[in-house]
Amino acid sequence: MSQTQQPPSPSSDPPPAPPHTPIPRPRTSGGSITSGTSKTKLSQPEQFFLSALAPAVACIFTNPFDTAKIRLQLQGAHSERPSPSPNSTPGTSPRTPKLHYRNSFDVIYKTIKYEGITGLQRGLVPAIWKEASKNVFRIGMYDPLVRLMHDPRDGSPPVWKRILAGSLSGAMGAFSCNPFELIKTRLQSTSPTHAVGHQHHYTGVIQALRHIVSTEGVSGLYRGSVLNIGRSILGSGSNLAAYSVIKEWLTLDRGWGDTVEVDMIAGMGSALASVVVMNPVDVVRTRFYNQNYVNGVGTMYTSVWRAFATILSREGPSAFYKGLLTHFLRIGPHFCLTFVFLGSFRRALTEWHDKRSASVTPAPTSTVLGIVRS
């Protein structure tokens, strides 16, 4: 007798679903730098403020490395090449001048030995103003530019959009900070015992501003701004894009949290990317900034291209990577601390907003400056 097939019980488990491709998690960060993973978003003025504050605080710790980098890059400048002695044999080349510094660590050692710790902190005041005036645009405008070019609902922005946003915001920041960058460079080169480059002997920021305006005009404060903008386009484009990509990979792909450790790793990685592309322009900019000017014309280099050609012909291609190690020793910790402070300040302010909103009666969700605030 044949058995009749029983229909499946309604309570029986359904057949297993066919294999399918896992659905990726939504990439909600969108390459953001000033916004974290919290649902509470800071207003744009708050983001601008933190973007200026974080690098200004970081500068206090990293300015000594910047001073060492400036002095090492100025060493070997055209003005230091001696003229032939009247008693020298015709047709012979003058002796190579004695170099004050052998390497980056020698700069730091001799500066501390002969000038003390304060020697390494030369130019600190204009350096702080430079970082604040630069990064209020460089970091503060990065996220708005990314959102302008890419809808966050479409997922993560491509790398080229991040590079373009970083380059544009970097150009804005470079122009705004040029006067402080110029004064900082000239103050850092000043040394009573191991002078390199032209010595301007400024006594402070105010005296430097007055002297430059009186002798070179207001346009003198923006001397080399084209070179500074070009450097920042390269540096910020690589730095901010690398930071956002690394942080997004760690938080979304690797499952790490929005923590200080992530800020440190992403900051150091972004510094490595930027220092490689920036150092050649940095050497030319340092030489061009620090030279003496007569009637608005440089006594060593009459133009940026002339500076580039002179350095290349007299010192060779390796001169463009002078101070590379010191540059990274300064820019690595600087970017690391900048993004650590930025993330810490942002998380603290976000937590304050959360506690404040929890202590009052919840209000309907509103939109301010295009940012949803709960």
From TrEMBL:
Transmembrane segments: none
Region span, Disordered: 1-40, 75-97
Solcar repeat copies, ranges: 46-148, 157-249, 258-348
GO CC, any one term: mitochondrial inner membrane
Pfam family membership, one: Mito_carr
Subcellular location as annotated: Mitochondrion inner membrane
Topology within the bilayer: Multi-pass membrane protein
Protein family per UniProt: Belongs to the mitochondrial carrier (TC 2.A.29) family.
Name by which UniProt lists this protein: Mitochondrial carrier
Species assigned in the record: Gonapodya prolifera (strain JEL478)
Phylogenetic placement of the source organism: Eukaryota, Fungi, Fungi incertae sedis, Chytridiomycota, Chytridiomycota incertae sedis
